[in-house]
Amino acid sequence: MANTNRCVHPGHDHGVSEDLTRLLSGKAIGIALESRRLDIIKRIYEQTKDVSMLSYAMEAVIDTQFSLSYRDLVLQFLYPLFPPLENRSPHIHALTRLVVAISSSATTVPLLISLVPSNKLLAYQFAFDLVEGGSQDFLEAIRSELPDGDNEVRLSQVTAWMMLTCVAGEQDYLRPDQDDTGRED
């Protein structure tokens, strides 16, 4: 009879345990989505604090054949669970994909505004990702809802917007000293 009580090297135990937890959590998230039990997804995230689980749930609901109304419900549910964006946040692209999929300027504008005073570089990255993935209507709604605010914040927002739309080829940007033909005054 074979001995099934093999010793696990102490240094490997933690990695194996994390892998099993992630695997089981991923399967549980899939089952929770299928059974429409969003409370289970929240509980898994609260226990693991693993943002990749939120990303997994988001990708699963976007990339599968769930109804649009259920997809939107799940995405709106997931959004507040994501931790705030910080320098080098590994989930910036997942969060951007989520807000683009939701396509709600009411959700996106406050997030963009919150980034500008504290982390302009991250705000530019977020705006660039929005331009890459968002529809024209969504982008225009964001631009029109940006508040006037103080000059520094507004200047940063408008500069980011014009720079990114120009880079993305969405529109031509003219300097203030140029007319609509691009010639200098």
Describe this structure as you would to a colleague.
The protein is globular, with a radius of gyration of 22 Å. The chain is built from nine helices and no strands. With 185 residues, it is mainly α. The protein folds into two domains: 17-79, no CATH class; 83-185, no CATH class. The protein has helices at 10-34, 38-48, 51-63, 68-78, 92-102, 105-118, 120-133, 136-145, 151-167. Helix 1 packs parallel to helix 3 and helix 3 runs antiparallel to helix 4.
Q: Tell me roughly what share of residues is in helical segments.
A: 55-70%
Taken as a percent bin, the fraction of beta residues is under 5%
Largest sheet: none
**Stretches with pLDDT under 50, minimum 5 residues:** 170-180
Compute the number of strand runs: 0
The domain count comes to: 2
What's the end-to-end separation, in Å?
92 Å
Topology as H/E string? Answer: HHHHHHHHH
Radius of gyration: 22 Å
Q: What structural category do the secondary elements indicate?
A: mainly alpha
Dominant shape: globular
Q: Summarize model confidence as the mean pLDDT.
A: 76
- Tally of contiguous helical segments: 9
Concise synopsis of the structure shown:
This protein has helices at residues 10-34, 38-48, 51-63, 68-78, 92-102, 105-118, 120-133, 136-145, 151-167. The protein has 185 residues and is mainly α.
Name a few traits of the molecule.
2 domains, 185 residues, mainly alpha
